[in-house]
Fold this sequence. Notes:
Elements: H1 17-24, E1 28-32, E2 37-39, E3 47-53, E4 56-60, E5 63-68, E6 73-74, H2 76-81, E7 87-90, E8 94-100, H3 101-110, H4 112-144, H5 165-175, E9 179-183, E10 189-193, H6 194-202, E11 222-224, H7 229-239, E12 243-248, E13 251-257, H8 258-267, H9 269-278, H10 282-301
Parallel strand pairs: 11-12
Antiparallel strand pairs: 1-8, 2-7, 3-6, 3-8, 4-5, 4-7, 9-10, 12-13
Amino acid sequence: MSTLFNFARPPFDRLDEEARERLSRHLSLCYFRAGDLLLKEGDEPPGLYLIIKGAVEESAPHHQFGDYGVDDLFDVRAQFDGRCRHRFTALEDSLCQLIPRHPFLALCEQDPQFASYFTANLAERQRQQEQREQLGQKNLAEFILTRIEPGHLQAPLIVDSKLSLLAATEAMVSKGTDCLLYPAHDGSLTLATRKTLLHALTLKGLPLTAPLSVLTPTPLIGLPLESYLFDALLLMTRHRIKRLVVWRGNEVAGILQLTQVLGLFSTHSHVLTLRIARADSLPALEAVAREQQQLTRSLFAQGIHTA
């Protein structure tokens, strides 16, 4: 009998000795390196995987469903459907126990209560998926109707155009910001970022003592305060920029960063606290946490590092 398989875990704990011996004869170990594709859409599943070490992600094009860790089983649905609906990828080096499909289905056929453990989980998972989709539609609608507020903005740093590139960089560091505003030759404000200053020093070879006024002015793109966040996202996408100037009348109210908009759009952080408060069970809290984990990974893949 396999010493790696834990027959004390439900529902395998209800199997008698003969069934355990029969199942053990078919068990095998599978090793996957990080990034390996275990299963993809349309595959006939070789069996049910039990993760002994590592982590596996379930996903579909443009969508992530969740991660599986130690002692988790996947893909249960495919055992009954005969085909995988999603793809499964190793997030790290993983060791899995494979329960071949036909012996597994034979156990389900012989023991309806054993089978009901998995079919009930499938029904619950389907219900949770429908709830997530409904919640996602609701949160998207809330995001579209959310307006830009002062709390969404980074305080503007406005300096004199005579300030040197070195002093400008020091000012940004001291204020904890990645951009600043300064008056151009015609008196209108223009924007410079850390990348702007870096290129001026490295690519153009300007000295640290050169004033900001020698930089090429960048026209400001922005929206008035109380505009819709969704409009801000569209504007950033259209102009391929990562920040907007937000106006309060003729004055700069602040800078709206793409990371802030993406965070609000993806997690709907303005309702995240409410969702946590409404969670009436541990699985509900786990669902919220899992979504935040998926978001962090997605943002990281886009080069956006979250703290």
